[in-house]
Amino acid sequence: MSTSETGTETPAEPEAPRDELRDGLVARLTELLGDGVVESHVLAGKDVWIRVSAEAWQQTAESLRITMGARYFGFLSAIDWMPSPFGRSLEAEVDTILTPQEKKALPPMTTGYAGGDTRFQVIARVANLSEHWGVTLKVDVGDESPSVPTWTKVFAGAEWHEREAWEMFGIDFVGHPFLRPMYLPGDFEGNPLRKDFPLLARFVKPWPGIVDVEPLPGVADEGDADGAAADGEGASE
Amino acid sequence: MTAISDRRKLAYIAAQAADSRVNVELESDGMTLNIGPQHPATHGTLRIVARLDGEQIISAEPMAGYMHRGYEKLTEVRTYNQVTTLVNRIDWLGSFANEVPWILAAEQLMGVEAPKRAMWIRTILFEMSRVANIILFLGDMAAQLGALTPVFFAFRDREYVLNLIESATGGRFHPNFDRIGGIKDDLPKGWVEDAKAVMDKVRDFCDQIEDLVLGAEVFTARTRGIGVIPPDIAMQYGLSGANARASGIDWDVRRDNNVGLAYPELDWKVWTHPDGDSFARFWVRLQETREATQILDQLLGGIPSGPIMAKVPRIIKVPAGEAYIATENPLGEMGYYVVSKGDLTPFRVKIRSASFNNVSITPWLLRGVYVPDVITILASLYFILGDIDR
Amino acid sequence: MGLGLVESGKMPKPLTKLLNTARSYSMWVYQWGLACCAIEMGAAFGSPRYDVMRLGVIPFPASPRQADLVVISGTVTDKMAPAIKRLYEQMPDPKYVISMGSCANCGGPYWDSYSVTKGVDQIIPVDVYIPGCPPRPEALLEGVVLLQMQIRTEDIAARWRGVPLVDQ
Question: Which tens digits make up the pLDDT trace of A70-103?
Fold first, then answer.
């Protein structure tokens, strides 16, 4: 893609051809996987997200690497889309632990680009270095016992990334050579990056960083209502 | 007769059994060598458990996590500007370079673009942190192979660059200077002239290293052909930066996927080496340091005038969306996958750090090599523990 | 020399002073570099610009068993903590600890992390704390000078008996 040549002449020009590139990627992958591609999202001139089904997850990697030339493995990780029951932990006080208050209703779960139906999603990114494009892939992972086929047979480098995702989210990668803890000591319990994993230090000490968004004295509230509300909470603590 | 032969047979069998037992006892299934978790060759706290057969490694398993600080969780409870303070400390030798992709990702989500002057100053500091980072590698690699002098040279010349970063940003190590929409402050008076003088010193340092290290036969003998990574394996493991370019992969995020930095306006070159061994990795980094000083010369010569901050709200709320922005950091491609839900804090941040991918190749790479070469290979891969464990 | 005298606690004062002065200027320091601070420690101990040896500190012992002083510089994680405790136990008495940087002092920017020990003093006793993130090399040198001042005025007999791992 010789986008740089066209880019110097007219600033509006590069949007259209790069869009074509990414739309073409989605079309190509749909052609290869059929029903495997569930949804896609193209951000014009920037990036592309493609969601595939769990059954087609391994085939996606093969198609991308072997047929489409995306031989460069970027990363693999996961997202927990559940809204955090602890918020930003700004309400963290000793009192809330000693006298548990009624929990506020959580906002409904929403997902990001290319949609999603489940709480956990595995994301991965691969790139084609000669054609200069990268694509972010997503796959839904079941809520009950989250598991997804491994990528290690296609991209050997996925091994550590899958170990990390297993440790941090508790997602099982079927066919992975040996899932064992990567970062945490052996007796650690829980999956830290799940949204329902509390940062306990915040429960015994209120968050001091709230001063960062306090309005300056003498300045009328130019900030929005939410920020001001957070300030109020911070000040009362 | 038969009784005797039976007895003989039994005796023979017993002797055989005893022999074989001795053999079983003598035959070892190798020795386990534990390198780390605190070893000078590991740049911090990487622990490597290696199974040895004599002097050869059967299998090596790096144990990470001694420096795991939980960045990805902590970013979920910090505002966007507070995260800048955190991510500074991922790769602590080139701190400013960690901030840039983070800020660029937030800017992309907000639809903000930094003014041109801010972009140039960002690029200047970005390249300076590269120089500050790789200088230490150039000295340290030789030290791992037994030559101590280059380390002292490296620490001496690195101070000049750190002084520059400090006089511009106020922080020797962790500038925390980048802001969404621009940078915190303008450059001080006379800084550009100082910086130009320092670039000459850095070039002198590179020449010295070339004489001292590349000119040494021992160095060549111990690095040529050691730890060869073929390009396809490098891509499978996601190697980036000089490690990939030393395997002949012509890929540099600065040139091929540049976002929000001044590189397209400059005249520079991406260095590659076809060999893929430890020597190539050292050589590419040496050339890149030289190239960085050339880039800096051009940047310092043409800083545009104008504002240094775009108009952004005082309380930063990033609209909902997702973005992945990567830059070519001193260690390789560093990217942030940011998911925002329109709150003060990010919803999820995946930090794609270069060293994590670069080190994940070590079990493959160390298989079958000799113990002294482990140090060479680890040093030439060049990782920083904070960048692996995050 | 004079170990019997030291253990009995009946050291003549001038001799104590002499021994303390001698000890304070011949400290072998073990570098336990963990994170960013390790680079600043390297700059202070290894670089020609700061030159720690002029203070009578020798930064290259072969093992902790030959060291009088350990500088814990950087983030202490829960996974690393047992190794640090073991290191401290291996050092011969009298032994001193400098905690360098906010992380080693109290957890620093990772005060709410799930994997970081909130201060190395939860595991081993610390003599000098150096604040900063990371502290400049000069700050580390000042910490060393402060420790030397403390050594010059301390009760040598108590030190020789060792410090129990609980609060005094």
Answer: 888 889 999 988 887 776 555 444 344 444 555 5
C-alpha–C-alpha distance, residues B123 and B195, integer Å:
14
Q: Tell the burial category of B274 from Cβ atoms under 10 Å away from its Cβ (0-12, 13-18, 19+).
A: exposed
Residue with tokens 């850095």: B202
Question: Are the C-beta atoms of A125 and A74 separated by less than 8 Å?
Answer: yes
Chosen from B75, B83, B134, B155 to mutate, greatest number of chain C CBs within 10 A? B155
Q: Do A192 and C114 touch (CB under 8 A)?
A: yes
Residue A70, chain B, CB below 8 Å: the answer is no
User: Position of tokens 């709230």?
Assistant: A210
For residue C134, the distance in angstroms to the closest alpha carbon of chain B comes to: 7
Integer Rg of chain C from CA? 16
Cα–Cα dist B299/B294, whole Å? 9
The C-alpha atoms of residue A96 and residue A198 are separated, in whole angstroms, by 13
ipTM: 0.81
Using a CB–CB cutoff of 8 Å, tell me whether C45 touches chain B: no
* Residue B18: partners with Cβ closer than 8 Å, 6 or more residues away: none
Q: Is the entire prediction scored with pTM above 0.95?
A: no
Per-residue CA distances from C156 to C2, C15, C30, C71 (Å): 12, 10, 21, 21
Return phi, psi of residue A28, to 5°.
Answer: -65, -45
Report the SS3 class of residue A18. Answer: helix
Count the alpha carbons within 13 Å of B31 in the hemisphere toward its beta carbon.
Answer: 9
AA identity, residue B57: I
Cα B176 from Cα B50, distance rounded (Å): 39
